[in-house]
Amino acid sequence: MKKQVYRSKVAQVFGWAWFVFAAYNAWDLIAHGSMPSALIAGAVLGVITVFVFLLALRPAIVVEEGGVRVRNPLRNAWIPWNAVGDVLVSNVIVIESGHTTVRCWTPHATTRERVKAVGRAGKAASRADMSMAERAMAEAAGRTHADWVAQQLTEMSASRRDASTGEIRVTWSPSALAAVAAVVVLVVVTLVLT
After folding, report:
1. Is the CB of residue 66 less than 8 Å from the CB of residue 80?
2. Phi-psi category of residue 166: left, alpha or beta, with phi > 0 → left and psi -120 to 50 → alpha
3. Which of 51, 154, 148 lies closest to 107, judged by CA?
4. Residue 172, pLDDT above cutoff 70
5. Cα 34 to Cα 26: distance, rounded to the nearest angstrom
6. Is pLDDT larger for residue 47 or for residue 65?
7. pTM of the predicted structure, to 2 decimals
C-alpha cells in the first residue's frame, strides 16, 4: 500500500516559499553582509525558518499499512489501526484510543470553513425533489477537508483493524528537536559575539 499524506496545502506552499526566501537571504548575508549586523539578521532568519518548518512543513497525518502516524510540530504519534477508537473533528482532528487522545495539527477546520460548508449544504439540501445522488452530494458539500480526512481514517481503521497489531507510541521528533537545538545555538552564538 502506498502511503497517503494529509496536510495543509496552503501551509506547504507558504513553507517552501519561505525556505526559498530564507536561502536567498542567507546567501546574501554571507556574500555581502558585515558583522555584527549580518549575524543578528541571520539569527532572526534562522528563528523564523525553524518556526516555519515546525508549524507549516512538519505537521501531517501519514496513513501507512499498519496504522496512522501523526506528525505534530515537536511530537510524533503512531496509532496502529487496531487501536484507533473515535476520530472526531472540532477545529482539529482528534484520534481517541483508550486513554490516549492525539490532536492532529493538520488538516484543521476553521470556523469560517465550517460556516461556509454548512451554508453550502443548506443551499444544496433546500430542494425537495432531490435524488439519492443529489442528497449525497449535498451532504458532501457540508463537510470540510478535515471532516473528509476523519471519515477516511475511520473507514480505514474499520477495514484494516484485523491486519494490524501494536501499541500507541508518542515520541519526541528528532528532526524537530535538532532544528530547535540548532537555532538555540545560533542565537546563543549571536548573543555572545555581539
Report:
1. yes
2. left
3. 148
4. yes
5. 13
6. 47
7. 0.79
